[in-house]
Design brief:
Number of domains: 2
GO molecular function: rRNA binding; structural constituent of ribosome
InterPro entries: Ribosomal_uL4, Ribosomal_uL4-like, Ribosomal_uL4_dom_sf
Function: Forms part of the polypeptide exit tunnel.
Structural class: alpha/beta
Radius of gyration: 28 Å
Helix content: 25-40%
Subunit structure: Part of the 50S ribosomal subunit.
Strand content: 15-25%
Shape: elongated
Family: Belongs to the universal ribosomal protein uL4 family.
Number of strands: 6
């Protein structure tokens, strides 16, 4: 089992904690990590590009002039692609970019990035993280004590003051145990979690 130092909000080491190998000591599967990141980015794409085909443009129901005898080329509709205001020949339509990964693969990808953070000493554990009031200055002070600037802070359900205090700090994001994902863990240099959050992570993802 990996041992990590436990810090208090002043940035002082107050003990150590053993991390479960089932979550924080797995073999890192880089291809699954890559697939999980691509999955999240693809699922966030809206794919809203759209143009109308000749069948979707309004109007043009009647033949503009008779077939023969006018001197014009024959035309069947004013909404044909060659007309101004007509439809597009091969019009783009909204596309669904999303795809799926197996649950086991998703879980292993998450464990892989958590393991890599522990191996790189970028996973910090706090004994507790509680603020008496909503104050960005206090949250910034905690991060400065830990010598961290760009961080993902994993919080529990009763940490609303922490969430609201951290939301205006550039480069800092909060997440609950159930909402952490591979992309966010890789995006931020350091992952900060309380002892209770680590226990929850081990319980949910083991």
């Amino acid at each position: 089992m990996a041992n990590v130092s436990v810090y208090n909000m002043e940035g002082k080491e107050v003990g150590t904690m053993e991390l479960s190998d089932a979550v924080f000591g797995v073999e890192v599967k880089e291809h699954l990590v890559h697939q999980a990141v691509v999955l999240q980015l693809a699922n966030n794409r809206q794919g809203t590009q759209k143009a109308k085909t000749r069948s979707e443009v309004s109007g043009g129901g009647r033949k503009p002039w008779r077939q023969k005898g006018t001197g014009h080329a024959r035309q069947g509709s004013t909404r044909s692609p060659q007309w101004t205001g007509g439809g597009v020949v091969f019009a783009p339509v909204p596309r669904d970019y999303s795809f799926k990964m197996n649950k086991k693969e998703k879980r292993l990808a998450l464990k892989s990035v958590l393991t890599s953070k522990v191996q790189d000493n970028k996973f910090l554990v706090l004994d507790e993280l509680k603020l008496a009031e909503i104050k960005t200055k206090e949250m910034k002070k905690v991060l400065d004590n830990l010598k961290v600037d760009k961080a993902l802070v994993v919080v529990g359900d009763d940490c609303e003051n922490v969430i609201l205090s951290a939301r205006n700090i550039p480069g800092v994001q909060t997440a609950s145990v159930n909402s952490i994902n591979v992309f966010d863990i890789l995006k931020y240099n350091t992952v900060i979690a309380t002892k209770s959050s680590v226990a929850s992570i081990e319980e949910v993802y083991a």
